[in-house]
Design goal:
alpha+beta; Peptide Deformylase; 5-stranded antiparallel sheet; 8 strands
Length: 174
């Protein structure tokens, strides 16, 4: 889907120190991210940076490609405490849920996306320890959205186009 950014929203698509998140149409967002072979200090620093950027942008999740790094690392924060997942994989999925989504890489655009209601995820934490999570509802949606980023997929690829709407992503900030 081609997105035409309305004039009133174009300022949100500038990438600078205030807005460090990669925005469409940057090609890194469409790449399949490489698996992390060995977690290094660089990955720890990257994950810390991702947490900071996500919080500053008032997000609930972020993937490494959104900060310009094509590696399989995501951060999710469905309940404000960030969880870092390296090489996450969905192992089981069930049910369906439809909810409105937005994206830090497409600021101001929102629409309804159908996702799995429950998922089981296997990954590594930032120290390299295997972890697994059973998630449902909002947390499951966030993980699926972020894993899509690792596969070069954006929410606009799955959205019900009839539900798309533009609105200020952070009305209190502007």
């Amino acid at each position: 889907m081609d997105i035409v950014v309305p004039k009133d929203f174009q300022h949100l698509y500038v990438r600078d120190e205030k807005r460090p998140v990669v925005k469409i149409p940057d090609g890194v967002l469409r790449q399949v991210a490489a698996p992390v072979e060995k977690i290094t200090k660089r990955h720890v620093k990257l994950a810390d940076n991702m947490v900071r950027i996500m919080k500053e942008a008032h997000g609930v999740g972020i993937a490494a490609p959104q900060v310009g790094v094509s590696e399989r690392i995501i951060v999710i924060a469905p309940e404000k405490k960030p969880v870092i997942l390296v090489n996450p994989e969905i192992k089981e999925k069930s049910g369906k849920i439809v909810g409105q989504e937005g994206c830090l890489s497409i600021p101001g655009l929102y629409g309804d996306v159908e996702r799995f209601a429950k998922i089981s995820v296997e990954a590594y934490d930032i120290k390299g320890k295997p972890v697994d999570y059973d998630m449902e509802g909002y947390a499951a949606v966030i993980v699926q959205h972020e894993i899509d980023h690792l596969d070069g997929i954006l929410f606009i690829d799955k959205v019900d186009e009839t539900t798309l709407e533009w609105r200020d992503p952070n009305p209190e900030d502007e």
